[in-house]
Amino acid sequence: MSLDATIRAEAEALVKEQMAHYDPSHDWLHVDRVRRQALKIAKEESTSGKQVDVELVELAALFHDIGDAKFHKEGQPTGREVVMAFLSRHQYAKADEVAKIVENVSFRKELAGIKNEWAENSIELHIVQDADKLDAIGAFGIMRCAAYSGYKNRPLYDPAEKAQLNMTYEQYQAQTKANTGCAISHFHEKLFRLKDMMKTPSAVKMAQKRHDLMVHFVEQIEQEYSMDE
Questions:
Q1: Is 5-226 a domain of CATH 2.30.40.10?
Q2: How far is CA 221 from each of CA 25, 200, 217, 225, rounded to the nearest angstrom?
Q3: What is the dihedral of CA 199, 193, 63, 126, to 10 degrees?
Q4: What SMART domains does its record include (predicted)?
Q5: How far apart, in whole angstroms, are the C-alpha atoms of residue 57 and residue 69?
Q6: Which of 142, 149, 171, 229 is at a distance of 20 to 30 A from 45, taking alpha carbons?
């Protein structure tokens, strides 16, 4: 079932307004790429026989960065509150399901390791998570990592810094709060992990090429820095 055109248009307008406060790595164009990627995965998964609520996927993908913890400030409404307020105005029957996906889509939530039956089995959540991860790796992932590092005034490459491999949720939270780490360390700490975190067969196939590009990129950075060319 396709999404109602009025709800889609108003949702897009709301998201564009929200994303205008974020940096280029989390702007409307990122959201639109994730939406299109999620719809592509949903189509492929449906073709393979899985039951996918495409309408739910599109709405959740559109709203997935609303209330992002990296940008959320105390006193502001949460992502759930914004989503529920919008969808309630439209009397959308599956508002709570959309909000649940928005609440659970992030790498941060996965790193926390909180398990529940719904998160383990929701194909719609898995599709949006995979679409978001795919946009975090490969060519766009490289540009987004640099853009966010610039926004946070973090070094692009610091050879003296040692990446925290197999970073825990607590370490991730502490690093975010302290605003430490350089862009290249981020590849080792997070981006290189994403390939093996894909949940749908469609995303698994797409992730390898993007992962390989990032590996080559980081190798090239290290060669250029060492003058070993």
A1: no
A2: 21, 31, 6, 6
A3: 10
A4: HDc
A5: 21
A6: 142
